[in-house]
């Protein structure tokens, strides 16, 4: 078996070397990410997508660089240009694939000049070229020499163990990322619904001066009590069930808001006219407004419960670790940052 890994050649490298390089450069990439985050933010966080001390994109990137740029080592210019293009292409493809898979931007360069879709930018692409020169000329010869010093049988046994852990970590992280995307979808839907409800309430109140009587105040009190009951029941639900309930309530709120304004896509003047046409009397407008207030209260309860669950999660594993690892993460069709999403939920 050892002979198979050492004798099987791909682009001038044995399968044994490729597997070893992938692990080593994944770990080196993770170290660089942690150091960069510590310098730029002053915080020591696990910056990898996986829970372990590895960044797979660096491993893949270095394997591609070794395959395609090793024949160009004699030319610093070609090596640099290749170092700009290849890692940037991988970063672009990786960012796009993760967005399509989880509807989430794990990193975003939208604020940087000369960026492509926020996935890559000129500044970091140029730095990739510098990094490629350093690695190919200084780092890789040392690593290649160290690997040659390890007996192939010992190295293979060690790699089998490490890859088993790597695979398990990948599976666990994939489920955690899916759960996080599901929860962020629910939060985004709640934020959109709360905004729609708020707009619909404003439109209803703007049709004319509505008499707010004692009956309305009593109804509001009942809604407050119902919201408190919802908060108690939400705490007993599982994370998945809580997210499903929150999404369902958001859908209900969105439909109610659309019904109140007749058409959510109308401009402000048309929406106001549509609401005026729909309003048939004070009693009906009062009931609609109270319904919207109830939905807004319940949505706020659900969002608070979700944030409380997130805060209780361990900061070093799973979804909460991902939130700390990617502080510039953006999610959803509106490409909202998590900070703006949280602020929007707080304001409503």
Explain this structure to me?
The chain has 348 residues and is mainly alpha-helical. The chain has 2 domains: 149 residues, no CATH class; 162 residues, no CATH class. Helices cover 75% and strands 4% of the residues. The chain has 12 helices and 7 strands. Strands 3-6-7 form a 3-stranded antiparallel β-sheet. α2 packs across α3 and α3 packs antiparallel against α4. It starts with a helix and ends with a helix. 31% of the residues are buried.
Task: Write a concise keyword list for the protein shown above.
348 residues; mainly alpha; 2 domains; three-stranded antiparallel beta sheet; two-stranded antiparallel sheet; 12 helices; transmembrane helix
Order of helices and strands: HEEHHHEEEHHHHHHHEEH
Shape: elongated
Kindly state the number of beta strands.
Answer: 7
SS class = mainly alpha
Instruction: Kindly report the spatial arrangement of strands forming the biggest sheet.
Output: 3-6-7
Ranges where pLDDT stays below 50 over 5 or more residues in a row are: 207-216, 262-272
Biggest sheet, in brief?
3 strands, antiparallel
How large is the share of residues in beta strands?
under 5%
Q: What is the overall number of helices? A: 12
Tally of individual domains: 2
Termini separation comes to 63 Å
Helix content: over 70%
In round numbers, the mean pLDDT is 77
Radius of gyration: 27 Å
